[in-house]
Write a structure and sequence with these properties.
single chain, 361 residues, alpha/beta, two-stranded parallel ribbon, 12 helices, elongated, binds guanosine-5'-diphosphate-alpha-D-mannose, binds manganese (II) ion
């Protein structure tokens, strides 16, 4: 007994070929199923097409509403509304081969606590060669960013099967945008992830709804998942990445000012300020973006103060190590790194406890 959940937005023309293929495959395999279409009130013929299809297939149309249009939230609505605990999620555009479903179901019957993923990157999997270079690079960067979160070669996949009793608290899910599979793998209580090779086909009808907004949502989603999985360490690494970007700002100003004829010591003195302001802003919007905002002016001053203190510590550690320990005098880069690291830890501690604290106003 299986519920096939298909999120749709403007997929009316794909529904007949989809239902036909799913029905053929599952009937042949002797799998009893329902096809649950979760549509975000598409401005097309979805409703009338479904009205015709219910006469032929075990199909149900759900149009939740009352929330923003969202792929992941639609899938969650589908999981809740499913009549069976076994849930398979797939796209409507036939990118995911229905022929793979019986194999996935039989894997799940031997490992009931598994999360079974249709994967493009496992041995034997593939995707359509017609992908643009842009989509290819994008997809690979997105995949790499998620790798530390899950043991899965294709964490971006939208084709997966699981028993919903292993999700845990469904209200605790916080997906944003497209990557509901990743969300389930990270927050769910599955025993293992099993990947099944699939040939991902490009859609023939209609258009993808993936866009820049979705990609930004994905970054925000990743942030939540990293925080969930790694807690404060994730914040620290994020803080470090912002710090590194600030270093680029620092160096850019340092050289540009000299090109304009500013003497190098003065350039060094000035470049600190745009860099520290950049770091302050980025930490306010991203690293600690989930925290309540405190007044800008005072927070900027405090952050700058913490950074200056951090810089003195960095400088102090460098001078101390190189002048008192011969090893560090020989390997000065290590003294430099030790200084920067101590300053980062100090900076981060002050930022998380005071500068971006929620308790202070
Ligand atoms: N209900 C609902 N609401 N459905 C949506 C929405 C929405 O806001 N946006 C998209 N969908 C549906 C589409 O109608 C389709 O059935 C499915 O979600 C996938 O959308 P596509 O627009 O076809 O996505 P894609 O082909 O770019 O991306 C697919 O492949 C990626 C891997 O390359 C998806 O499976 C992604 O999850 C996957 O990462
Ligand atoms: Mn698609």
């Amino acid at each position: 007994m299986l519920t096939v959940v298909v999120p749709t937005y403007k997929e009316a023309a794909n529904l007949l070929p989809l239902s036909t293929r799913v029905d053929e495959v599952l009937k042949r395999a002797g799998i009893v199923y329902e096809l649950l279409i979760v549509d975000d009130c598409s401005p097309d013929d979805t409703v009338s097409v479904c009205e015709r299809l219910v006469e032929q297939f075990p199909l149900r149309l759900l149009q939740p509403g009352g929330r923003p249009r969202d792929l992941s939230l639609s899938v969650i609505d589908g999981i809740r509304a499913a009549n069976h605990d076994l849930v398979l999620v797939m796209d409507a555009d036939l990118s995911h081969p229905p022929e793979k479903i019986p194999e996935m179901v039989s894997l799940l019957s031997t490992s009931p606590g598994a999360f079974v993923v249709g994967s493009r990157y496992v041995q034997g999997g593939s995707f359509d060669r017609s992908w643009s270079l842009w989509r290819f690079i994008n997809s690979h960067i997105a995949t790499m960013l998620a790798r530390p979160l899950v043991k899965c070669l294709d964490p971006m996949s939208g084709f997966f099967l699981f028993d919903r009793r292993y999700i845990g608290e469904i209200d605790a899910l916080r997906p944003l945008g497209y990557k509901i599979g990743l969300e389930l793998m990270v927050r769910g209580h599955f025993d293992e992830i099993i990947e099944v090779p699939i040939a991902f086909a490009d859609r023939e009808i209609g258009a993808s709804k993936m866009n820049l907004t979705q990609q930004v949502k994905y970054l925000r989603h990743l942030r939540l998942l990293y925080l969930y999985k790694f807690g404060g360490l994730a914040e620290f690494v994020h803080f470090g990445v912002v710090g590194a970007s600030g270093f680029i700002v620092d160096v850019t100003f340092y050289y540009s000012l000299q090109l304009l004829g500013v003497p190098h010591q003065i350039a060094r003195g000035i470049s600190f300020w745009p860099a520290v302001s950049w770091n302050w802003m980025m930490n306010r919007m991203t690293t600690f973006g989930g925290r309540k905002r405190r007044p800008k002016g005072r927070q900027w001053l405090e952050f700058t103060g913490a950074s200056l203190l951090g810089f003195s510590v960095s400088f102090g550690v460098y001078v101390l190590l190189t002048s008192s320990i011969e090893f560090f005098d020989r390997y000065r880069e290590l003294a430099f790194i030790a200084g920067v690291l101590s300053a980062s830890i100090l900076n981060f501690t002050m930022s998380t406890l005071f500068v971006y604290s929620e308790k202070r106003r």
